Amino acid sequence: MLLVGNGRVFTQDPACPYLKDGAVVLDQDTILEVGSYPDMKQKYPQAEFVDARGQLILPGFINAHTHIYSGLARGLAIEGNNPTNFYEVLDGTWWNIDRHLTLDGTKACAYATILDCIRNGVTTIFDHHASFLEIPGSLFAIKDVAKELGMRSCLCYEVSERDGEEKCLEAIKENADFITWAKAQDDDMIKAMFGGHALFTISDKTFEKMVEANDGRTGFHIHVSEGMNDVWDSLRNYGCRPVERLLYNNILGPKTLLGHCIHLSSHEMDIIQETGTMAVNNPESNMGNAVGCAPVLQMLEKGILVGMGTDAYTHDMLESLKVFLIIQRHNAGLPNVAFGEDLQLLFENNAKICERYFKKPLGVLKKGAAADVIVMDYHPFTPIDENNLGGHMIFGLSGKNCRTTIINGKVLYKDREFVDIDEEKINAWTMEQACSLWGALNHRDYKAEEYL
């Protein structure tokens, strides 16, 4: 049993949103009770104590869309790659990387990504993987790392025809095999979706194969209208818009998650809402790729469940929180919009997305919820309480304020040090894989010992 206390508890539970001097009691993988620190300390004297030192106690953050396969790209420059449009970004950078990812490379990407997530207080990820050099076993490699490090994860593989029929069929099989495994395990730490890349890389024939292989067992996680490529391809080759194609191919539904959704028509938004389909916004990535601003405010007005992801641009959810606000205001030309919606995406909607996959409530500190808790160091020079936490989140806090991360009742990161995780050993091995990948991409030798 753990008692995380002596801090300001922000629960995200409307029934009890804030305790100035509070505590959260964890019984293995579940929150047993939330209450005042003196009361909980007296009631559970035998509990192991995690001292928040007067700082913030929060539910762990949820990232509703990321890409583990980009984990070794930090600092990478690919010779001759100077993209001038979105397709060139995909083909010259990301597809180029995943075409060179071995299973060990995938595993190294998972280590790099998950360690950084833990450092930033992220306790649940929805990942969308691609490693077209070695597809079979790639989701299982990620699963192994997630289980080793303790990250709550929902995984899928990115089906695409971009590298031919054989690779496409391997991707479909990898999804199907992993879904079968996850269903048999019924583990609330590892869930499965059926992944797909952008529609302009997937034909109706492939959609048919995906639906058949999935057999209604889970939802789809797919990129939609991130760039205009999807819109042009759908209109030219299928006589309809992208979301209509998804509807006709039986992809939509309450457990399906649509990534990006930037270039949507009003009619497409209506289809998403009527089918109960979810969407996820990735503001920093969209700005970085110069693909536009998603109409999130309009989607929310129509009643669509829209969450927040990072597309692996960062693993700091509070960084994305800040960028969402400014891109939406810039796009609307109004300085008084998107504040409430920003907080809604990260703290309410991401938790609702998780409800469709995980059994225990996530993103909230209350009795019966999953034991995912973080402690954030923050010394404000202005008042802070339940009425203005959002303002401090957007304008004061960042992921690097995270001092302690607990997932599923296990302390993984305490006082900015990993617990029972050999970070130095992992980093050394990951560096070897990064040098191998960078060497393959740039046709030169990178020696790991030179960078350690």
What is the topological layout?
Layout: E1 2-10, E2 18-27, E3 30-36, H1 37-43, E4 48-51, E5 56-59, E6 61-66, H2 86-98, H3 103-119, E7 122-127, H4 138-149, E8 152-155, H5 165-185, E9 190-192, E10 194-196, H6 204-214, E11 220-224, H7 228-238, H8 242-248, E12 257-260, H9 266-274, E13 278-281, H10 283-288, H11 296-301, E14 305-308, H12 317-332, H13 339-355, E15 373-376, H14 389-395, E16 402-407, E17 410-414, E18 417-418, H15 423-442
Parallel strand pairs: 1-4, 1-5, 6-7, 7-8, 8-9, 10-11, 11-12, 12-13, 13-14
Antiparallel strand pairs: 1-2, 2-3, 5-15, 15-16, 16-17, 17-18
Helix pairs in contact: 3-4, 3-15, 5-6, 8-9, 12-13
Structure overview:
It is a single chain. The chain is globular. It starts with a strand and ends in a 10-residue tail after the last helix. α4 (138-149) links the parallel β7 and β8. α3 packs across α15 and α12 (317-332) crosses α13. It has helices at residues 37-43, 86-98, 103-119, 138-149, 165-185, 204-214, 228-238, 242-248, 266-274, 283-288, 296-301, 317-332, 339-355, 389-395, 423-442; strands at residues 2-10, 18-27, 30-36, 48-51, 56-59, 61-66, 122-127, 152-155, 190-192, 194-196, 220-224, 257-260, 278-281, 305-308, 373-376, 402-407, 410-414, 417-418. The strands form 3 sheets. Strands 1, 2, 3, 4, 5, 15, 16, 17 and 18 form a 9-stranded mixed β-sheet that branches. It has a 5-stranded parallel β-sheet with strand order 10-11-12-13-14. A 4-stranded parallel β-sheet has the order 6-7-8-9, sandwiched between helices. It is an alpha/beta fold and 452 residues long.
